[in-house]
Design brief:
Keywords: Hydrolase, Metal-binding, Zinc. It is globular and about 70 Å long. Helix 4 packs parallel to helix 5. It is of the alpha/beta class. The strands form three sheets. Strands 1, 2, 3, 4, 5, 14, 15, 16 and 17 form a nine-stranded mixed sheet that branches.
């Protein structure tokens, strides 16, 4: 639709943090949405004489930012929250894989709804899910996840995961919960061909995403990279999450995780990895040189006692870094806006102390940084004319924030701010903290029922 004929939404009288290249901010400004694009933005009142204005929003007392971008998650874990709460990563995986290996399509759909709903009502407009558990005979798990995202109206990337190294091969997952090398590659290719949209305003994209070095074979990593590049999609996996993983890679492959990934074709500007906690200077330099991205998951890293990722050093080396919720079995809150605060605070416990991150760097990680990591920085992640209209209005005039003069500081350092409105592709999906497109209460009931059903099945097994 031509811009002149598009229906317009005008948002006025709010503070604005654009997170553009110059970090432009307006103490009181406006934003015009035309169709699914941002048409104009600036200080003061919106231009007069705009045609086809269907709605005007007086956003006094609010901060407008780009929608948050989640770069790592495991939606299915929504129905296994609160388990193995005092375990490190490997022991946690051993404890939970027997339960996860019994998920089915109905469970996965409900869990995806729960995960997406919690993020969306907290300002996430672009989500991703790294789904890698495909038990035999479990149904169309990828399709159910994509359907849940489409119904909610959230922009979405499915990282179609896979595992082919089970217990009998020295891996962690049960034998019946993994795929063969050939089966995983074929199913991944079919998912890309059926669901990936490469267009500018795509609502659904697919990445190739073998799970981790200790749950996939070298051939699955190598051929997965080749498949992704042949199909023109991105690559995602877990990397350098724990000291145990580093030891595993040295014992099995004779090298650390980063060198192993490079040997299999898994460094490059089309790749992003989750966690990257245990990286030395050489590893960080390799990521910076190849523009390999990182999904930083501070709450999950703390929950599993994995350590503190060297985010300030990564940023200085030119590594693209975004934020991730991670699966809700290791971050029970399931929210991304709390990760802005946690990323800042946890990184200040590291070597750089109070100079590690500031409020605006944290906001950039959760918006533009995430867009970079997903390969969509030209389309989302900042508020600029021509970009997609993924916009969040945070209410900053309540008791929780009203006495903090700087709204960006209030958003990052303060309590989780209420979302008055969230727009994805120009369509509103949150209104006064409630989801518009789905029934939150019905989702709460279905996720509880599916969690109980999974627990019964796992106990009987």
């Amino acid at each position: 639709m031509a811009a002149s004929a598009a229906q317009r939404i005008v948002i006025e009288n709010c503070a604005i943090a654009t997170v553009d290249a110059g970090d432009a901010e307006y103490a009181s400004g406006y934003l015009v949405i035309a169709g699914n694009r941002i048409e104009s933005i600036g200080a003061g009142q919106a231009p007069e004489g705009l045609e086809n204005v269907v709605r005007r929003i007086d956003a006094s007392g609010h901060l407008a930012t780009p929608g948050l971008v989640n770069t790592h998650h495991h939606f299915y874990q929504w129905i296994t929250r609160g388990l193995a709460t005092d375990h490190n990563l490997f022991n946690w995986l051993v404890a939970l894989y027997p339960t996860w290996a019994r998920i089915d399509e109905q469970m996965t759909y409900a869990a995806a709804q729960g995960s997406l709903a919690m993020m969306a009502r907290g300002g996430v407009t672009t989500a991703m899910d790294h789904h890698y558990v495909y038990p035999h005979g479990s149904g169309d798990l990828s399709g159910s996840i994509i359907r849940a995202a489409a119904e909610m109206g959230v922009r979405f990337t499915l990282a179609r995961g896979s595992m082919d190294r089970s217990e009998k091969d020295g891996g962690l997952p049960p034998d019946f919960a993994v795929e063969t090398l050939e089966g995983a590659l074929a199913a991944t290719e079919e998912t890309v061909k059926q669901h990936h949209d490469a267009s500018f305003d795509a609502m659904t994209q697919v990445a190739v995403a073998p799970c981790s070095p200790f749950s996939v074979s070298t051939e699955l990593l190598r051929q997965g990279a080749e498949l992704a590049r042949r199909l023109g999609v991105r690559l995602h996996t877990h990397g350098s999450e724990t000291v145990e993983e580093e030891k595993f890679c040295h014992e099995l492959f004779g090298m650390g995780p980063t060198d192993y990934f490079e040997s299999t074709g898994w460094l490059g500007e089309d790749v992003w990895m989750a966690h990257c906690v245990h990286m030395n200077d050489s590893d960080i330099a390799a990521f910076g040189r190849t523009r390999t991205g990182v999904a930083h998951c501070p709450s999950s890293n703390a929950r599993l006692a994995a350590g503190i990722a060297r985010v300030p050093d990564m940023l200085r080396a030119g590594v693209p870094v975004g934020l991730g919720v991670d699966g809700t079995a290791s971050n029970e809150s399931g929210e991304l806006h709390t990760e802005l605060r946690n990323a800042l605070l946890i990184n200040r416990l590291g070597a750089h102390r109070e100079a590690a991150l500031n409020a605006r760097q944290a906001l950039r990680l959760g918006t533009h940084g995430g867009a970079q990591v997903l390969g969509r920085a030209d389309q989302i992640g900042s508020l600029e004319p021509g970009k997609l209209a993924d916009v969040v209005l945070w209410k900053m005039d309540t008791l929780a924030h009203a006495s903090i003069a700087d709204p960006v500081t209030a958003l990052v350092f303060g309590a989780a701010a209420p979302v008055t409105a969230s727009f994805v592709n120009g369509e509103q999906i949150v209104d006064n903290g409630r989801l518009v497109t789905v029934d939150e209460d019905a989702i709460a009931r279905s996720t509880r029922e599916e969690a109980q059903r999974l627990a019964r099945i796992a106990a009987q097994a």
